[in-house]
Amino acid sequence: MIIGREWGSPMTYETLFIGLIVAVLYAEIMDIYPGGIIVPAYVALYLDQPFRVLATIAVAFLSLYSYKVLSRFLILFGKRRFVMLVLLGGIWAQLWFFLLPHFFSDPVGLRAIGWIIPGLLANNLEKQRYIPTLASMFVVSIVTYFLVRVILMF
Questions:
Q1: DSSP code per residue over 64-128
Q2: Is the Cβ–Cβ distance between 37 and 22 less than 8 Å?
Q3: Could you give the CA distance from residue 35 to residue 15 in angstroms, rounded to a whole number?
Q4: What are phi and psi for residue 9, nearest 5 degrees?
Q5: Quick count: other Cβ atoms within 10 Å of Cβ 99?
Q6: Cα separation of 94 and 111, whole Å?
Q7: How far, in Å, are 8, 21, 82, 85, 100 from residue 125 at the CA level?
Q8: Alpha-carbon span 96 to 105, nearest angstrom
């Protein structure tokens, strides 16, 4: 269960479904993956909590730079790269969660979104350039956010 969100709510399912569709269409049209296919949908769920989105991006960059250090000593490409980035994303997200209470009085807003999302984002940041990937992620997330709000109005 994600803190602050109920998984049984229709908005969650609709957001994830619409986010998947928008991300796939965006990737096909623009030929840039918006941080992964599922990542923008999860970011759209948390657009009302910008510190969670920023924490997720920070954890993704920590994972990416850890990967770059490890790749000097290990053979990491293809599936190994993907698994290592997802693993590092989970490790950094968990460390981030455990270490923040020591620095901030209310760190709940600074948690990363899940354990896998930062690793998926880091994987796409590694494959593509940083600015187009992050810009695409935000475009798809915002479009998803507003599409869900419009659909829920009817």
A1: HHHHHHHTTTS---THHHHHHHHHHHHHHHHHHHHHGGGT-S-GGGG--S-SSHHHHHHHHHHHS
A2: no
A3: 16
A4: -70, 145
A5: 11
A6: 9
A7: 31, 21, 11, 10, 24
A8: 14
Give domain limits for the chain. 10-153
Q: What is the CA radius of gyration of the chain?
A: 16
Residue by residue, pLDDT tens for the chain (154 residues) are 344 455 556 578 889 999 999 999 999 999 999 998 999 999 999 999 999 999 999 999 999 999 999 999 988 888 999 999 999 999 999 998 888 766 666 655 678 898 999 999 999 999 999 999 999 999 999 999 999 999 888 7
Minimal CA–CA distance to 11: which of 150, 153, 154, 148?
Answer: 148
User: What is the model's pTM?
Assistant: 0.87
Structural contact between residues 52 and 2, judged by C-beta atoms closer than 8 angstroms: no
The pLDDT of residue 3 is 42
The set of residues, in sequence order, having a beta carbon less than 8 Å from that of 18 and lying 6+ positions away, is 41, 144, 147, 148, 151
**CA distances to 35, 57, 147 from 118, in Å:** 9, 7, 24
